[in-house]
Amino acid sequence: MRISKVYSWFYGYYPWMVVFATTLVLFGSLSKSNNNQDEVPLKASKFQKPLRLPNKGYGYPPVLAYWISGSKGDSNKMVRVLKAIYHPRNQYLLQLDSGSSDYERENLGFLIESETVLQTFGNVNVEGKSYAVNKMGSSALAATLHAAALLLKINSDWDWFIPLSASSYPLLNQDDLLHAFTFLPRELNFIDYISNPGWKQRGEINRIVVDPNLYYKSNTPINYDVETRKPDAFEIFGGSPWVILSRSFMEFCIYGWDNIPRKLLMYFTNVAYPLETYFHTVICNSFEFQNTTLSNDLRYDIIPKSPKPKILNTSKYGEIVAGESVFAQPIQEDDPLLNMIDEDVLHRMPDNFVPGSWSSCQGINQGEDLCYR
Fold first, then answer.
1. Is cis: bond before 197, omega within 30 of 0?
2. Measuring CA to CA, which residue among 38, 275, 259, 235 is closest to residue 142?
3. DSSP code of residue 66
4. What is d(CA 367, CA 42) in angstroms, rounded to the nearest whole number?
5. Residues 86-141: tens digit of each pLDDT
6. What is the reported pTM?
7. Helix H segments across 197-315?
8. Closest Cα to residue 89, out of 126, 49, 46, 60?
9. Is-contact 217 98, C-beta < 8 A?
10. What are phi and psi of 304, to 5 degrees?
11. CA atoms of 56 and 220, how far apart (whole Å)
């Protein structure tokens, strides 16, 4: 009887022990981003010129901080995305997760190092370390926060954080995008709220989830545990996992000078699909940021209603380019849709960068300052 009672007590508290332990792992991962100098990725090449800061102030374009993430077999796709969104003003961080091999990560660094333009301006970084990530679990949220923390450590003089995947592609060249963002309030956050988001349809928001990828070295499925009650201390909001977030809001989430981000991080550590809810809930429950949102993620995205992801193709081309979206996803590698966007929208030649006002500055020392304007 004694053994039975002990087992019953342990079983009743086991999910909460798992929640506590997993949260500690997530906090530890984020703390390493802020405190460990070894976590800062090196430039693609030691021969790159030192980072030059672009002109800032009223009337000058903003600086965008892009994080391009991928997995096994995505190196070439990531480089193509980089060339399609490159501009000397911006900051770029490329990262492959643990689904990729050491060779793929080294090859990605080599591909970046071999581009003279990228070495000239020195604003592209490749993360040499890999982390296990499951898009359904809190490891995806941890990876996003980690990437933003690295970009802040490399150079905090940027205005918006834009996460992209290897399957994303731009629908607007960077000159036009920077011009469009020039006179927008720098504290504006682009978060798309969905009235009936996927997490509501799936009914998973109240379930405890354990993501082993926070402490495993290889990509692993998440584990579901028992049901738990919906929190009553805050209201949950959700929508698209793709966002464009201001630097001030990312600093708020990472440095945590208010208790809200960390309190919510503890909750969403053990929730499925936290990228669909965490940033939305933090910003709507924060007095400082709740009036800084625009309910639009500027993406043309297919939200799958089935486990099998849907892919954009040429049949959607007219609809894609006719809208207000700035990025489209997901698109398969070498899909004809990419070539159509390159030719008709971006005017990008194969394997080249998208031409822009900075293009004439390449390799001309006396004109380099113009490239940062």
1. no
2. 275
3. E
4. 27
5. 999 999 999 999 999 999 999 999 999 999 999 889 999 999 888 888 888 889 99
6. 0.84
7. 198-202, 247-255, 259-268, 278-284
8. 60
9. yes
10. -70, 140
11. 43
Alpha helical stretches, state H, the chain: 2-35, 75-85, 102-113, 116-121, 138-154, 174-181, 198-202, 247-255, 259-268, 278-284, 317-322, 336-341, 368-371
User: For residues 250 and 265, what is the distance between their CA atoms, to the nearest angstrom?
Assistant: 13
Backbone angles phi, psi at 128, to 5 degrees: -75, -25
Q: What is the DSSP letter of 47?
A: T
pLDDT tens, residue by residue, 192-214: 987 555 555 555 666 777 777 77
Position of tokens 């500690």? 24
Cβ burial, residue 280 (10 Å; 0-12/13-18/19+) = buried
Alpha-carbon distance of 278 to 131, in angstroms, equals 20
The CA distance from 44 to 355, in Å, is 23
Pairing label, strands 223-227, 207-210: antiparallel
Identify the residue whose tokens are 């849709």: 337
Query: Counting every residue, how long is the chain?
Result: 373
250: left (phi over 0), alpha (psi -120 to 50) or beta: alpha
